[in-house]
Task: structure prediction
Amino acid sequence: MAEIFLLSLRQLLGRWRLIVILLLAALPSLLVLLIRAIGEGEMAFHGEFVGVVIDAMITGGIMPIVTMTLATAAFGNELEDKTLYFLVLKPVSRVSIVLAKLLAVLVVALPLVIASGVVASALVNAEAQQMGILAIALAAGVTAYASVFTLAGLLTPRALAYGLVYVLVWEGLLSTIVSGIGYLSVRGYTLALLHGMDESSFAVFEGRVIEFPAAIVGTVVVIAAFFLLALYRLRTMDVP
Result:
């Protein structure tokens, strides 16, 4: 398993992919610094910052896109290079293969996405508790997305394109205008976790997020269900 994990890390850390996701992760901090530079006043960790930077930028764009870019490539690279056949021939269980791929995605995606939110929050003088809660919620969201898109990479060679449509339409547009989608949305779970852990700091989400216990259950179910689906797919697919 360790060998597969290290191999997957090397595959995911390709130069151009790494440059793109680093630039995406830096956008919230760059925005805060730009607002300061042009003299538009100091941002604070309240409605405007939470609504624009955390909601629209990080949970609505950076978190899913960064995770999707990495997770779809976890198995996608193997299928494209036709090396998955040699991987499944190794005396390693399918569980270990899927787990190694998922862990490799998380090792790269988690620090980037969490740092994206925490550094931007530090620039607006957020409290340690607020940054800690943000880190926990983002970690849950990244793990859920990683599980979803790892399976997607096993299902289709066009996983990145389909995933982008899913992120923009379902997680972006529909989740903000259609009530009830929060129960079937990783972004909805993430926002509900933020609000549930600190209602005052994330009061801007009040009235549009699902119940805190439902968000916890939903996140756990998504992670477990899509991991098992990826395992089932790897066991039953015809490996080229």
The two ends are 22 Å apart (CA to CA).
